[in-house]
From TrEMBL:
<feature type="compositionally biased region" description="Low complexity">
    <location>
        <begin position="565"/>
        <end position="575"/>
    </location>
</feature>
<dbReference type="Pfam" id="PF07002">
    <property type="entry name" value="Copine"/>
</dbReference>
<dbReference type="GO" id="GO:0071277">
    <property type="term" value="P:cellular response to calcium ion"/>
</dbReference>
<feature type="domain" description="C2">
    <location>
        <begin position="1"/>
        <end position="134"/>
    </location>
</feature>
<dbReference type="Pfam" id="PF00168">
    <property type="entry name" value="C2"/>
</dbReference>
<dbReference type="GO" id="GO:0005886">
    <property type="term" value="C:plasma membrane"/>
</dbReference>
<keyword id="KW-0677">Repeat</keyword>
<dbReference type="GO" id="GO:0005544">
    <property type="term" value="F:calcium-dependent phospholipid binding"/>
</dbReference>
<comment type="similarity">
    <text>Belongs to the copine family.</text>
</comment>
<dbReference type="InterPro" id="IPR002035">
    <property type="entry name" value="VWF_A"/>
</dbReference>
<feature type="region of interest" description="Disordered">
    <location>
        <begin position="548"/>
        <end position="575"/>
    </location>
</feature>
<dbReference type="InterPro" id="IPR045052">
    <property type="entry name" value="Copine"/>
</dbReference>
<dbReference type="GO" id="GO:0046872">
    <property type="term" value="F:metal ion binding"/>
</dbReference>
<dbReference type="InterPro" id="IPR000008">
    <property type="entry name" value="C2_dom"/>
</dbReference>
<dbReference type="InterPro" id="IPR036465">
    <property type="entry name" value="vWFA_dom_sf"/>
</dbReference>
<dbReference type="InterPro" id="IPR035892">
    <property type="entry name" value="C2_domain_sf"/>
</dbReference>
<dbReference type="InterPro" id="IPR010734">
    <property type="entry name" value="Copine_C"/>
</dbReference>
């Protein structure tokens, strides 16, 4: 099914080896309707971000936001800057606390709620904006997440929601700015206003993200705020015409700050203040003079711009007899009650990364090389869930369940044909060539390919389509033919035609098995290698077509119809 993937754009065609390690995203956190844990005022929330190591699944504190006094609806200004890897599962945990003292020890403060997700889920959400409910932590989850019992929430309480936004970092210049105001509105009964400014940058979906707050200047209608330095990326992420909204408030001790007014500008307009005063009107006043006193130029390479691409992920599993009898422990399809077999491990390793970029978590799952009930027809393209009109499985767990059920109902046979499942995905990819969708086919197989000539032709044809193929070889075979399909050394060809680009990535699963039996490490290593080339392959496709990055607000995609195959092709190939 289709999902959302933030991919490289056409702005800078850097080698992917340089692009992937350097990609950084900025995480912004807001909350709504938090628990009120204070008796005489509202909570004073802070957000703590934890990341999880792959090796031992240990949660480590990454950073903390500032504390915002007396509010249940905080928009935190402090950002978390994370390295983003498409090919890795990066687990995140956001914990919210009500600070009761200046102690750094979180056990001294009231727990407000928690949310766990992956960085891929945030990046892959519509507009790279994800909103979820905050959860209480019971004793069991405290143990699972290595969270001490004193961090537990209040059972049965609605903890509110957390909003997490991701934006890839672009231009890293910094600019020093200063603002002042003149004749602002008087909001306090016994004195003048206590004004401060809040800066927001606009998002592509029409919303705004807070990026800076000034200090409060007490008891004046003609404030002069301190000069501050801010990265250009925080204001506009390199888009000099991107709208910047500045709101003016009168500070109140109870957190109910009075709104004075607002104005909009852009970085391009602000930059004119370097040589002249710029004046904006707020409400019924003229405000403020804006000027730059210094530019701090500090660059790094601009690597990516975000464009939004729908991901269609399809799984194809080898059901040929060479895998061995599934009821025997020697079979590659053996369903052990104690651990996953190689097929299931490979499927989970790749699928759990891809599903983060899928909004509905529905995947078509196919099998090939089996005799199907009730008449024993051989098929090289059958739905694992048994429903040719709707072959989609719910999440990777649904794919695994359908895989296990198929092992109980079909008879492993042969031969090993790759071309039918490649052609199946290619038919859908041929319908959408504008870069708005990209198709990924995962084939898991154990050995010799019986239709090598047809498979080469299918790959050459598919190389001009928005499509990539991942092949994972399981078992002890040599996999010479699969290595040839990879095309890293010699570009694959068929009937004198060469593939337009390399779209196949092959790896033998045995090379990733952890010697200590740590399946989590095995899956992480496998996923990292097989998925690392996907952004580059996508980039090669859009570059060769001159396709501009998609910056729409995620209108519904033209996803394939639920039928398994195009009507002009038979569902099951008979031998």
């Amino acid at each position: 099914m289709s999902g959302l993937l933030n991919m490289a754009s056409l702005a800078d065609f850097e080698p992917l080896a340089a692009v992937i390690p350097a990609t950084k995203v900025e995480i912004t956190v807001s909350c709504r309707n938090l628990l009120d844990r204070d008796t005489f005022s509202k909570s004073d929330p802070i957000c703590v971000l934890y990341t999880q190591t792959v090796a031992n699944r240990e949660w480590r504190e990454f950073g903390r936001t500032e504390v915002i006094d007396n509010t249940l609806n905080p928009d935190f200004v402090h950002k978390f800057i994370l390295d983003y890897f498409f090919e890795e599962r990066q687990n995140l945990r956001f914990d919210l606390y009500d600070l009761d003292s200046k102690s750094e020890n979180l056990s001294k403060h009231d727990f407000l709620g928690q949310m766990c997700c992956t960085l891929g889920e945030v990046v892959g959400s519509q507009g790279s904006r994800m909103e979820r409910s905050l959860n209480n932590i019971d004793w069991a989850s405290s143990v699972i997440h290595n969270v001490p019992s004193y961090f537990r929430g209040i059972p049965g309480k609605n903890c509110g929601t957390i909003i997490v936004k991701a934006e890839e970092l672009g231009n890293c210049r910094s600019v020093l700015m200063q603002f002042c105001g003149n004749k602002l509105d008087k909001k306090d009964f016994f004195g003048k206003s206590d004004p401060f400014l809040v800066f927001y940058r606009s998002n592509k979906d029409g919303t705004f993200t807070i990026c800076h707050k000034t200090e409060v200047v007490k008891n004046t209608l003609d404030p002069v705020w301190q000069a501050f330095k801010i990265p250009v990326r925080a204001l506009c992420n390199g888009d000099y015409d991107r709208a910047i909204k500045i709101e003016v408030y009168d500070w109140d001790r109870d957190g109910g700050h009075d709104y004075i007014g607002e104005f909009s500008t852009s970085y391009r307009e602000l930059s004119k203040g370097h040589s002249q005063f710029t004046v904006w009107e707020v409400s019924h006043s003229h405000f403020p003079h804006v000027y730059f006193t210094h530019f701090c130029l500090k660059y790094h390479k601009h690597l990516l711009k975000i464009s939004y691409t729908q991901i269609n992920f399809t799984v194809a599993i080898d059901f040929t007899a060479s895998n061995g009898n599934p009821s025997q422990p020697t079979s590659l399809h053996y369903m052990s009650p104690y651990h996953l077999n190689a097929y299931a491990l490979a499927l989970r390793a790749v699928g759990e990364i891809i599903q983060d970029y899928d909004s509905d978590k529905l995947f078509p799952a196919l099998g090939f090389g089996a005799k199907l009930p009730p008449d024993g027809r051989i098929s090289h393209e059958f739905p694992l869930n048994g429903n040719p009109e709707n072959p989609y499985c719910s999440g990777i767990e649904g794919v695994l369940e359908a895989y296990y059920q198929s092992l109980k109902s079909v008879r492993l046979y042969g031969p090993t044909y790759f071309s039918p499942v490649i052609n199946h995905v290619a038919r859908y990819a041929s319908l959408v060539k504008d870069g708005s969708e990209y198709f990924i086919l995962l084939i898991i197989s154990d050995g010799v390919i019986s239709d090598m000539a047809q498979t080469k032709e299918s790959i050459v044809n598919a190389s001009s389509l928005p499509m990539s193929i991942i092949i994972v070889g399981v078992g002890p075979a040599e996999f010479d033919e699969m290595i040839e399909l990879d095309g890293d050394e010699v570009r694959i060809s068929s009937r004198g035609r060469f593939a337009e680009r390399d779209i196949v990535q092959f790896v033998p699963f045995r090379d990733y098995i952890d010697r200590r039996g740590n399946h989590i490490l095995s899956m992480a290593r496998l996923a990292k290698d097989v998925l690392a080339e996907i952004p580059d392959q996508f980039l090669q496709y859009v570059r060769s077509r001159g396709i501009k990055p998609q910056h729409s607000s995620h209108s519904s995609s033209s996803k394939p119809p639920p039928a398994l195959v195009h009507p002009v092709h038979p569902l099951q190939t008979q031998i």
